[in-house]
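note to self: dont lose this again. the chain is below, predicted strucutre after it. 64 aa total, dont forget to put it in the shared folder this time
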Amino acid sequence: MVTKNGLKLADVIKKAIEDHMVTNAEYEEIYNIALEDGRIDNLEKALLAEFKNMIADKTIKRVP
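---
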């Protein structure tokens, strides 16, 4: 089931992928969006896992 928060989260992560970087503020925003409705659904879990993997393999760079 795709939720409004899931779609919003996908958009913000997509921007980070396109920029190849994520600021600390954007990083926090991503997690706040996921937690906004009080639960993390399957789409959000998958998006967050992929996002973490991209940071780990440096596809997306964290910047201040």
